Amino acid sequence: MRRVAISVPDPAGGLPWGMRVVRTTRGLVCLQIGRLLDGRLGILGQDGEFDDDGLFHELSASALEPGPCIAPSVWTILSDNGVPAAGALTINRLSCRPPWLRAWASSPKRCPVGDERLVGFGVLGPHAVSVSYMVDGRLHTVPTVGGLGAYLIVLRVPPKLRQNAPGLGGTTGLLGGFPIGAGKGEVVSRMLFRYGGRLCQTGFDRQPHGPPQCKSRIYRTRVLVPGILRGLHTAVALKARRVPGGYDLEVAFTAPAAVTNASVAYGIQVSRPSGAACGRGGTNGQSLERDVARGEVLHMTEFVRQPPGCHGVVHGEVVLGSETGALRLIGSDETIGRFSFTLP
Q1: Are residues 208 and 96 both part of a single domain?
Q2: N or C: the chain end with fewer CB closer than 10 Å?
Q3: Domain of 339: which CATH number?
Q4: What is the pLDDT of residues 1-39, one digit of tens each?
Q5: Which long-range contacts (CB under 8 A, 24 or more apart) does 38-41 make?
Q6: Last residue of a domain, one of 162, 193, 219
Q7: Same-domain pairing of 120 and 93
Q8: With 70 as the cut, is the pLDDT of residue 256 above it?
Q9: In terms of pTM, does the model score above 0.85?
């Protein structure tokens, strides 16, 4: 665990913002952001946090949220336009509701006007030099920090974004330096990298007369994902249980290989039937994010919705694959078992 040497002023004053990098026992790199006091990272008691006591509460290194955790060789940009000024991330919950977000039955109270932040933070790897962002039509550039290429940007939410925002923030990911999904409304608009003494730029707002655009042959990095053994197979036991709105499919299988770090995971994927009553179908699933011993019996449950009049076969797979984020079994993966269930 280490605090990155970044201290960013809050747009409204008060305690600055900082960032900490935490390496987990399973090999993930996790990022924490918050307010800084005497070198400590924490959350302020406001915006619905800690009963609005107005005090500083130190953030434990073990208080990790799943979103900002990545494999060491996968560089990501994370952004959120609904972070409260208290400093708490809003990945799993809202301590207060941004003014532009529509209320719902169990929604928290509305955030005070001006107490929402547009935050960009992440690690871009050892080749990163700087990141740029746009404010009021002007491009600002900040250097990255340290060997991880870390950066942190904290801004007020621009009025136009506040009025048009459909939901809470967005995420832009980079796999080996490749920008995925960068677009209008993100915090970071341009990234500058140096490879072998050569500068290149990437992003959706590249400088016309700046360095050349990064090419894959320049910025491809080695992704440290253990090879997936081929030819693995496991028998799958399925139990379907009727629940409100559909069925819980309870899957049990024996792990044919051990999982010893966060780069590989077992998962299940379920494909729903399509049709007039069922809709477009689609695929959903989940991964098991923990170490697994060879021969261990694993249990996973996936809910399958059954709209009125929807009948057909649900097809499922048990997968062992590379894990680069929550439920992202991509790249090298192997289907090791199959199952099916007919919606009656």
Answers
A1: yes
A2: C
A3: 2.60.40.10
A4: 566 788 999 988 889 999 888 877 777 778 888 899 998
A5: 39/3, 41/3
A6: 219
A7: yes
A8: yes
A9: no
